[in-house]
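Entry: Replication factor-a protein 1 (Rpa1) subfamily protein
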Amino acid sequence: MQSTGQQKPKRDVFLVDEGGRSVVLTLWGEKTETLPEEQLCQKPLVLLKSVKVGDWNGRKLDSQGNTRVELFPDGNRAAEVQDWWNQEGSRRGSFASLSGGGLAVGRKEILKSLEQVAQEAAQAEAAVLSDKGVYATSCALLERIGDDRFSWPACPDCRKKMNEEMPRCWQCPSCRKQCEQPNHTYMLNLSLMDLTGSLRCSCIGEKAEEFMANTKAETVLLLAEHRALDEQGRSFQDIFADANLEVRLFSIPMFMQIYS
C-alpha cells in the first residue's frame, strides 16, 4: 500500500536453479512490468541485481527501486544455466521451495508438477482421501477462474447453503437460522496448468478472496446482477480477468466426499 492510499502493483514470480531449489521473487510497482507474460511462458533465464533478501516465513526475494531485471543474459555462466534447463531442469518434476508461501518458517517444501498431483490423488486410498486427505504444493499458472457460478448464500452460523423463503427472508435448512441476508461466500472454480498438464480445483471462503484482490463476494455479486461498475470502473468480468494468467504457488488438498 502506498502513502497515497492506492494499492501498489505486486507480482510473484517463481525462480528455480540447478541445485533443485525454488524461491519466490516479489516484484513491486513498475518492476511488475519487467517480466511480460508472453516471455514468462518461455521460461526465460533471468539475471537479477540489487534485490532484497528476506527471511520472514522462509527465504524470499523482493525488488527495490534500483533492482535490475535482465532477461536472457549473455556470458559463460548464463550459457551453463541455460544448458542445464534445456537438458534437465525443464523435465524436472519438483523443486525444494526455500520460500514459506504460508508454510512453516524455514520449511523446505517439495514442489510437484500438476501431473504428479493428479497421479497422487488417483493412487491414494479412498480411506485416506475420506479422512485426512492428501496435500501437495505446486507452482502453476492460474489459467482461468470461472465466473458463471462463483458464490453461495451461506448461513452466518453453520456456513451451509441458505434458501430464500421470501424477499429478505432467508432460512438455513440445517440449523434453521433465519435472517434478512445470507453471508455470500466465494466458491471459485480454478483451472491450473503447467508444463505437465492441467488441473481443476475449487477454492472457498477467505482463501478465495485473495484471488479476487480481497473484493467481497457480495460486492461482485451485486456488480453482476446490476451490470454495474465498481469505484475503479471495473465490471465483475474485469475483476475475474485481472486474476487470470498469474503464476502462483498453490497448496492443494485432495479429499473425497460422498454426497447422499
